[in-house]
Specification:
Number of strands: 7
CATH superfamily: 7,8-Dihydro-6-hydroxymethylpterin-pyrophosphokinase HPPK
Number of domains: 1
CATH topology: Alpha-Beta Plaits
Distance between the termini: 35 Å
Number of helices: 4
Helix content: 25-40%
Strand content: 25-35%
Shape: globular
Structural class: alpha+beta
Length: 152
């Protein structure tokens, strides 16, 4: 079993319902949820003229390899009603792999840790809430330390 940390986000429709649906769908896909952060309302990144997001981080275990996990996540997003749209645009649900244990993955269409992780203070804050001593595998620094240095 591998421990993974996923980010959930929604800014369209029943945002709380989409987050709940994502958690339920991840469990149906075989992930075992260990911990989850609070739900935080955040400003959109990239395209600013859109509704605010609800974001949450979950820690889970899985037997899936990273590529299989990504495939399962994309399938779940479609099942929940996500439709193709602009990058960083509005969406019913967005599920991102933030960390997969201490593995570093750089493949076509899959980068772990998430390439924007250290640029998004809200993700660092939610990860630090779940596990303040969690290490970011590239820098080897804790989420708490990265958050303390993150731009506000």
């Amino acid at each position: 079993m591998r421990t993974v940390w996923l980010a959930l986000g929604s800014n369209l429709g029943d945002r709380e319902g989409y987050l709940r649906g994502a958690i339920e769908g991840l469990q149906r896909a075989g992930l075992r949820l260990l911990r989850q952060s609070r739900v935080a309302e955040t400003e959109p990144v990239g395209i600013r003229d859109q509704p605010r997001f609800l974001n949450q981080v979950v820690e889970a275990t899985t037997t899936m390899e990273p590529r299989d996990l990504l495939t399962a996540i994309k399938s779940l997003e479609r099942e929940l009603g996500r439709t193709p749209g602009a990058r960083w645009g509005p969406r019913e649900i967005d599920i991102d792999i933030l960390l997969y244990g201490r593995r570093i993955v750089d493949e076509d269409g899959l980068r772990i840790p998430h390439p924007e992780l250290t640029n998004r203070p809200f993700l660092l804050e939610l990860l630090a809430e779940v596990d303040p001593q969690l290490l970011e595998p590239v820098s080897g620094e804790t989420m708490s330390r990265l958050l303390a240095r993150a731009p506000s």
